Amino acid sequence: MTEPGSHEFDVVSSETVYSGAILALRLDEVRMPGGRTARREVVEHHGAVAVVARDDRGRIAMIRQYRHPLGRRLLELPAGLLDGGPDERPLDAARRELAEEVDLAAQRWSVLVDLAVSPGFTDEALRVYLAEGLSALPAAEREHEEADLVVEWVSLADAVALALGGEIVNATAAAGVLALAAADATGARLRTVDADWPDQPTDLVARKGS
């Protein structure tokens, strides 16, 4: 038995049991401490980006959007998948989502927080940006659920209260709002847009490109 914290969790075998448009399901047999193996289900997913877009009045652009798995509309941040191919930069995806969902562009960008969405079963990870120096763009054409979304401008203080009160339940939105409040309160220096992102998912993109 190795010392705790030193075991190498080698993958003995791997099988793909499903591959769809936005995710794949992989079954890995992984070597555990003590020599036995255990099966682990891994959902491969695109990475994603989200944007906390703050205007000169300190308000955050949020969207209220229908989410079918929950069967109701949620208050969220502009966000989207990194599904533009292996050469798409996360910052470019964030700019695209800000334009497509809330008709905005931004002059100043920084990395607010990185998230591993649910690391117990999926490699999905998400980078949340802070965007400031906002300007309006022509209205984008939207379809499916996005055709029904509503843009709401919320003060940071109100957004924090909504997160703590259980009104903002989207994990990305809650994390982004609370991270910005913490950064403002502590004066923390945010990372630049080229900061390393070691958990950015690549398996699904590589699968679709092969």
From TrEMBL:
Gene Ontology biological process terms, A to Z: nucleoside phosphate metabolic process; ribose phosphate metabolic process
Keywords, sorted A to Z: Hydrolase
CDD domains documented for this protein: NUDIX_ADPRase_Rv1700
The keyword Flavoprotein appears for this protein: no
Lineage: Bacteria, Bacillati, Actinomycetota, Actinomycetes, Mycobacteriales
Ranges of residues in domain Nudix hydrolase: 44-176
Catalytic EC class: hydrolase
Record-level GO cellular component terms: cytosol
Organism: Gordonia humi
EC number: 3.6.1.13
Highest taxon, organism lineage: Bacteria
Name this protein carries in UniProt: ADP-ribose pyrophosphatase
